[in-house]
Records
---
Amino acid sequence: MTAMDAYSLDWDYPAPFVQSVTVADTDIDGLQHTNNTVYVKWCERVAWAHSVSLGLDLDSYRRLDRAMAITRSEWDYLRASQAGETLAVATWIVDWDRRLTMLRRFQIIRPVDGATLLRGAMRFACIEISTGRPRRMPREFIEGYGPAVLDGGSTTRPVKGQDAADI
């Protein structure tokens, strides 16, 4: 799948950061579909890759003694995938307070039929690595993550297929 193909999919939000994955035989569980934990692993990987693309890798985190740690996650498993299928895994930073927290959204689409297999979210809090305590985001995080936050992003905005009354 090319980058152009990935961007032409029916994403919930604009300008996704996308990675392509192929479901391996080892990703399949006893129910003969991709194990739910594999989807979470893919989302974690795309989030890290997005951070690295913004100039915030693990070395930067260590140097700054700061990290964005997951405090909450939520997953809606909508459809199954099978071994050999190629999937597009996307992430966006949809909300942040510019001080302590940010919210990432995820969507996994099977390009061959355009089906959304998963929607998810992770809330992160900035911590001081050496103590594990919450700390304000350093300037480098504001400058790195800031341009990637969707304009007007909000945790209360519906995604496609969701009724605003359900939020």
Note: The domain at 3-150 is CATH 3.10.129.10 (Thiol Ester Dehydrase; Chain A).
---
Amino acid sequence: MKNNTGLTLLSVAILFMLMFSFAFPAGNSILTMAAAECPPGYSGTYPSCVVTVPGCTNPSAANYNPNATADDGFCKSGHPLVSGCTIPSAANYNPNATVDDGSCKYTPSPVSGCTMPGAANYNPNATVDDGSCKYTPSPVSGCTMPGAANYNPNATADDGSCKSGHPLVSGCTIPSAANYNPNATVDDGSCKS
């Protein structure tokens, strides 16, 4: 009868060597498990597997991806990425920005109107002058009483300077009235029928 125990022990030893590796660091004899590969979509070695994020891992490349964990071999030469507002109509548009960072700011729509504070139709909310400003003429001081000797038809504000060529006499100026006063120059509303 043949002893198969030796063959069985040899088979186990070979299998053991295939599954494990021996390392003998400086003075120590330690048995370590051979490095196992991580499953697809992960990088590193077991048990330190991390999700693989393919992309350009070169910080000086134009398409650098700071979140990439595995270089995909498609790094583009050029300037590094510049974050900023990439929308030309925004108030803080950055023509050098290559990546929009969501910081764009917009000014309110322009409001047309008169922007001159001295105008009669001045609009304090107007941001664009539309040429509609209207100016009232400055008041003209003078005598505004038509019967006065110094009457000024252009006067818009009476300055109290009216003079009559004749002394002003109040009274009834209607000849058919019972109390008509032929010397009256200003009708005072006292006429009686």
Note: Residues 9-34 have pLDDT under 50 and may be disordered.
